[in-house]
Amino acid sequence: MRRRRVGRIVRLVVKAPSGTVTFLFTDIEGSTRLWEEFPDEMRAALADHDEVVRDAIVSCGGYVVKTTGDGFHTAFGDASSAVRAAVAAQLGLDAHLWPATGPLRVRMGIDTGEADERDGDYFGRPVNRAARLMAAAHGGQIVASAATAAVLTAPPGVALVDQGFHRLRGLAEPMQVFRVHADGLVVVDQPLDTEQTVPGNLPRSATEYVGRVDLLRSQAAQLASRRLVTLTGTGGVGKTRTAIEAGWLSVDAFPNGVWLVELAPIADSGAVVAGVASVLSVYPQAGMSMLAAIVDWLRGRRLLLILDNCEHVLGAAAELVSAVIAGCPSVTVLATSREPLGVAGERVVPIASLDAAQAEELFRDRAQSADASLELTSAELETVGRICARLDGIPLAIELAAARVRSLTLDDLAARLDDRFRLLRGSGRGGSERHQTLRAAVAWSYQLLSEAEQVVFDRVSVFAGGFDLEAAEAVCSDELVDVGDVVDLVGSLVDKSMVVADRADSRVRYRVLETLRVYGEERLDDRNEIAALRDRHLAYYLAAAQAARSLQMGPRQLDGDAVFERDWDNIRAARAWATDSGQLGLAEDLLIATYFFAFVRLRHEVGDWAEQLLAKDDPQDPRASSTFLVAGGFRNIVMDFAEAIRLDHEAIERGSDPESIANAWQAIASALVVQGNVEQALVALEHAEKALTDTDEANVNYWVRWCRVNVSVFSDPTALPAAMERLTDFAQQTQAPWMLTSLHNLKGTMSLGIGDYEQALEEHRAAFSIATKTKAVFDQVFAAIGIINALLSAPDATPTPEIRNMLTLVRDTRTWYVLSRACELIANHLARTGHLDEASTMLGYLERYAPAIETGSDIRNQTTDLVQGHPRAQELRALGAAMGPAEFADYTIAQLPEGGAWAEPRA
Fold first, then answer.
1. What is the largest CA-CA distance in the chain?
2. 170 and 218 co-located in one domain
3. Which end of the chain is more exposed for a tag (fewer CB within 10 A), N or C?
4. What pLDDT does residue 204 have?
5. 42 with 184, same domain?
6. Is residue 313 domain-resident?
């Protein structure tokens, strides 16, 4: 080392360490907010921060690799020096007198291992892990890996405290993490911010991210300040992986989560909106398109929405993104596509191939994953360099080649690549030179498969999203491939990186990367097998859906639900093929099988399927009555009762089976009750009960009995006990969780009607528990409303946190047509406690949107009487009537205090 003086500070110029290196990463917590609040003061504060941290690093023999935004990336020749530097930096920061910004809180991560150094920069796993450790820490914390702990000679006054194993964002396996404690260091006792605490649905990658780390960090740092970023590049260049890793690195900036929508399994542009709604759990709204409902749900949320693989549905994706950008100022969209979306304000970030060092690092990492015993000599490293150069640094091509090291030497690998590429040069189906390189790499790997492997690879390209072994055996086997051989052939494709195996919940699911899937589909087309394979795919998933629906009608409902959850992409693709190929009868069969699952989960997509089938009605091939029933059911959800009743009557006219007729009449009766037409509802119910005598189907039997109880509440209370007993007996004999949930809700409503508030609360909480377990949003919402009503109906009711939580859930699901049931009581409590402004405002909304028969006319009348003399009552009622459902829900929640008593009314 030699000394260099800068100003009055002595600097130590340190040579970059090599071999086993310890990396220390630092970052200022919450710097984005500080820059926004104190732009001038932060310049001075950052300069002070840099001075303190740099002096600590250099004085301990550390090498500053680079500064990264508001932090440092540093390297040390030994772990002890890195830990001493981190402690010294934190002590110096704690002792510093800061300007108006307040103390800058810095988080630090340390990892040790073998890393590659080139031109003053480092590559490899320890670099990535140190960065991930830092991201998991909070300001003032220093955390280190087990690798660092193993080689650390702790400096005096320093100790490591084991924090256990944590799954850090972007790492394939959990890491053991240690927190560094030191004398004089402020203890920041906050749990690590690990993957388990992250909202959203980002997947865990099976392998670690390699290459392009600087680009990744810079893009992640900027995401929070962007509206739309599109990662572009040829297939296989790593757009998806980069987007997911950027999502993990930026989760702190998005308190409402990072959500990934995979568009690759969606072949129909019309299903893009439904796919996004399904991932975000957005439900249909009265008078709104589903796209408008998504925008309405996103508005006000701070989240990152990742749309992956947009190129094949570019127009639909662009339309959705445009609507989100225009209507949701706090949402950031990160898209991946082979071409830009063309939306105003789009920031396009091309993802280039890996440079030489990154490409070689990726090859070594994946090759050693394929063969853990692999040790590369200097000559072999040169061969790796030639291979990666021949593959143009395309990550997918490199991974395909690296997977072959178990069966080929590196020299054989290089020679075969050269031969194959010379053979394919200038061939293919168009595209850029690099895309031809990728196609050549895929074709080369494909040609190394056996004939049977090729056939199975081509055939699995018909699956959307993923598949299991049973599905592969059913769809891929025939006279060419014996069903007993499929398991070994799929396993061989996994070994050769042509198919990905995901293990979760004691199951193995398989999937094919989009670039490889497209290639396989092209080969399938060359074989003239697409129609036959799609027919087999349709037959398999129709049978699976029908079997799953049968399970849903009994005690094994969760097993049936799991089938739809796992294979919704395949069911969607099967439905599209049935419709597009003119097999409308099979499309209707699939519609019937999926309807129950879609209804309780509020997946309006199935309602759209029904509407599309109705549009194809042909006098020579008329649509089945069940299709009208499905369309009517979803119209009921969005309170389009008149159209729902019309569709149900159409189902009755077309129907010949008693099941459909009974179902349609009970649906009409239920809709009429909601509208207050009890006498007409009774007539419809009698028709339903007459048809019911000829069918034992569980679903329609339950709902006709349920409808009798519901109608009796308003028409003949004396008939309630007998009707309730018949319903209870049927539900308990059947033991389907959804029936028991509905039964608990109904019993809660009955208990509330006779003033037994404790029993009502017990019943609704039981319903809520089952509905939460079964993810039955429809029943969960009704249970939440029941809980609110039970808590607020008691004479000494107070606005407990549970009421706020339940009302918030209803607001978040956007099920407005049941919201009024609870809000009637809240408005009444506000009026009785003197909050006449708020009660008048709520009453105005309820008078416009909520039929009194549904919500309780006595409560409504009492509230009206209480606010009648208020001088501003009419003005405030008009204000409430002008509110939309979301605005009204937010307003109502705001009236519920956090504590246990109503606030004092305003003077």
1. 98
2. no
3. C
4. 75
5. yes
6. yes
Instruction: Name the percent of the chain lying above pLDDT 70.
Output: 92
Domain containing 219 — which CATH number? 3.40.50.300
The average pLDDT across 458-469 equals 94
- Say yes or no: 49 and 115 in one domain: yes
Per residue in 871-883, pLDDT (tens digit) is 999 999 999 999 9
Terminal Cα-to-Cα distance of the chain (whole angstroms): 75
User: 460, 520 in Cβ contact below 8 A?
Assistant: yes
Residue 59 belongs to a domain: yes
Last residue within a domain, chosen from 168, 197, 226: 197
- Higher-confidence residue of 636 and 579: namely 579
Helix (H, G, I), strand (E, B) or coil at 736: coil
Above 90 in pLDDT, residue 574? Answer: yes
Question: In this structure, are residues 784 and 811 in contact, taking their beta carbons and an 8 Å threshold?
Answer: no
d(CA 318, CA 611): 24
Token couple for 696: 């034992």
Residue 383: domain span: 356-448
Region for residue 383 given its phi and psi (left: phi exceeds 0; alpha: psi -120 to 50; beta: otherwise): alpha
DSSP codes joined into one string, 854-866:
HH-HHHHHHHHHH
Q: How would DSSP label each residue in 847-899?
A: HHHS-HHHH-HHHHHHHHHHHTT-TTHHHHHHHHHT--HHHHHHHHHHTS-SS
According to the model, what pLDDT value does residue 4 have?
A: 33
Alpha-carbon distance of 122 to 117, in angstroms, equals: 4
- Let me know whether 144 and 23 are in one domain: yes
Global pTM? 0.70
Contact in structure between 634 and 606 (CB atoms under 8 Å)? yes
CA atoms within 13 A on the CB side of 115: 29
Query: Buried (b) or exposed (e) across 712-740, using 16+ Cβ within 10 A?
Result: bbeeeeeeeeebbeebbebbeebebbbbb
Is 360 found in the same domain as 337?
no
Token pair 């959990």: residue: 174
- 438 and 317 fall within a common domain: no
pLDDT of 173 reads: 67
**Residue 876: predicted pLDDT:** 93
3-state helix, strand, coil in the chain (%, to 5): 60, 10, 30
Residue pLDDT, tens place only, 398-417: 888 888 888 888 888 888 87
* Cα–Cα distances in angstroms (integers) from residue 689 to residues 657, 692, 707, 708, 722, in the given order: 14, 5, 10, 9, 15
Please indicate, yes or no, whether residues 815 and 878 belong to a single structural domain of this protein.
yes
Angle between helices 777-793 and 757-774 (to 10 degrees): 160
* Distance separating alpha carbons of residues 560 and 549, to the nearest angstrom: 6
CA gyration radius, the chain: 32
- Identify which of 657, 597, 655, 665 has the alpha carbon closest to the alpha carbon of residue 623: 655
Q: How far is CA 459 from CA 489, 700, 721, in A?
A: 12, 39, 58
* Domain shared by 125 and 256, yes or no: no
pLDDT digits (tens, 9 = 90+) for 292-313: 989 989 998 999 999 999 988 9
pLDDT at 10 > cutoff 50:
no
315 to 85, 339, 486, 687: CA distances (angstroms): 53, 12, 38, 47
**Contact between 200 and 305 (Cβ < 8 Å):** no
Does a structural domain hold residue 287? yes
The CA distance from 790 to 194, in Å, is: 38
DSSP state of 204: P
What pLDDT score was predicted for residue 417?
A: 77
29-50 pLDDT, tens digit per residue, is: 878 777 877 888 888 888 899 9
Contacts of 609 (CB under 8 A, 6+ apart): 575, 579, 587, 591, 630
CATH code, domain with 38: 3.30.70.1230
Predicted confidence at residue 430, as pLDDT, reads 40
Q: Per-residue confidence at 92, pLDDT binned at 50, 70, 90?
A: very high
